[in-house]
Amino acid sequence: MQKTSIIPIAHAEAPANEPENEEALEEPEDLKPQIEEECGETTACKPLKHHLEECARRVEAGGTDETCAEELLHFMHCVDHCAAPKIFAKLK
Q: Region (Disordered): which ranges (predicted)?
């Protein structure tokens, strides 16, 4: 005798519209790292990058308790301010 359940069982069906080629499954290229790198080299952000690199050199040389957190935050703020409109423009 076969057991039956009072809870109905549903089975998923195969998707009706599968892509015909693998290109449709590929992720688009992420342009954010490239845009951020370009923004880091702008005239607005380059001095902040220089301050960050100088701080990193001091820390690597030792003898200081600096963390370079302030320099990093200033540089990243500049990069984000430059990159955000460019990244969002690419999403359209």
A: 1-30
Q: Domain 31-90: what homologous superfamily? A: Ubiquinol-cytochrome C reductase hinge domain (1.10.287.20)
pTM value is: 0.69
d(CA 82, CA 86): 7
pLDDT in tens, 19-50: 566 666 788 889 999 999 999 999 999 999 99
Nearest to 54 by CA among 37, 75, 33: 75
d(CA 83, CA 10): 47
> Which tokens sit at 74?
């200033």
On the 0-12 / 13-18 / 19+ scale of CB atoms within 10 A, 89 is exposed
Phi, psi angles (nearest 5°) of residue 53 = -65, -40
Boundaries of every domain in the chain: 31-90
